[in-house]
Amino acid sequence: MFEHENDTIAAICTGAGGAVGIIRISGPRALSTVRAVWRGRRMPGPEYPRVMLYGHIVSGAGAGEPSLAVFMPGPHSFTGEDVAEIHCHGGSFAARRALRLVLQAGARLAQNGEFTRRAFLNGKLDLTQAEGVLDLINAGSERAGLLAERRLNGAVGSLVREIRAEIVHLLSECESRLDFSEEDLDWMPPDVLCETIGALRKQAADLALTARTGALIRDGVSLVIAGPPNAGKSSLLNRMLGYDRAIVTPVPGTTRDTLEESVSIGGIAFRVTDTAGLRDAEQADPVEAMGMERSQQSLGAADIVLWLLDASAPAESFPAQFEAMKRAETAVRGKFIPCWNKMDGAAMDPDELDRAYPDEKTDTDHTAAKQPVFEHISARTGDGIEHLFRRLEETAWDGLPPAAQSGDAVVSERHAVLLEQAAKHLDAACECVRAESWELAGSSLRTAAELTGCITGETATPDVLDEIFSRFCIGK
Ligand SMILES: Nc1nc2c(ncn2[C@@H]2O[C@H](COP(=O)(O)OP(=O)(O)OP(=O)(O)O)[C@@H](O)[C@H]2O)c(=O)[nH]1
Ligand SMILES: [Mg+2]
Q: How far is 40 from 34, CA to CA, in rounded Å?
């Protein structure tokens, strides 16, 4: 792939349909190619850099299609090479015909992402910015678009370059100890060196965490509302949505099938699933039993399970309610939030209800098993819902540091993996510095520098580039 990086490439860079079709040509023969297929009173060339000229495409038969052409001489162009563009009518025919003429004039059809790859190779963008281009194209929401834009503007790249520069500096510190004798240089004491490496390690690890911010904003969170029949699960879904989406009746077993809707809480998209109430299969008819089966599956797949208990039920029902809750919790792989509903009809106050939960101290080791922290709401009156929303938001962020939540610089999965590996090598370097094994410390630091360089592209191998740019479309 990409063997001829000095030839002239062309592609339609606008999507199908639309009012205008743009053919982009990049490479040393961009100007002669556009001049071969296009005529105007003023011809594209260095006299008119970045000026849109009016003319028509030369197609042999007739006057040719009216169109605009522009020439952007390198290095001040997107790819850093000479670039020419022809803007013709949209639709599928005009642009395809113009492209055919351009290819006949000697340009080669560009491969996926080849324009952006050239921009990267010519130093117009670093790799994080090139990936930002792709993320911006794929962004499905305003917030995802904003994150991509920040990456495109170099927010991630500049942070990573700072970390890398510091690693390289430390590397020279270690290596100089191999080359010079103790009297020659004024060295950092090993503990100071270790502290500096530790700080860098933390910076790299914290930056890696921001990948979770990206995933959260891109994919949202799946929240499953579960619990016994009649606990008010469907009522809560309706309350969260602000309209009556699910059927609510006093009959236990009303909801038969899972039901999914989207709710935004604190800027995070929650995909909320209402489920059929869970109870002994013998009590349920065959349809309800199938619904319960689906509820069970949802429990296992959820990021967060909100388990409702009925606070208005007689206290004698609580042990059975707690047992059902504990049983369900074993099937949950995500986070689990227990929640008393129907507080408006409860005979006890919140503290009394929580104390009804059996103390889980084990006799043998006396370590307290984690007591559940209950929410207290009324789906009917709306009491406690704001508090529950804050808890959901916090649970979704799950201890991510505020800097990661700010979204200023959010790394991709690829960056996170490299940063985590770099952090491990920095740890190893620290150990070696402590043992004053300078050669090994140097080798770990060198690996960490390579890994961080792979993020911005300085040390990325051609197959890494192939993998990244193949995800782009043709024309980008
Ligand atoms: N007093 C009171 N009643 C509630 C509250 N939430 C729900 N209910 C009532 O409880 C009954 C059951 O509500 P649903 O929302 O259908 O309960 P569910 O958990 O979805 O029940 P299934 O679908 O059968 O599993 C209805 O009569 C609701 O009006 C609440 O906060 N307070
Ligand atoms: Mg229901």
A: 11
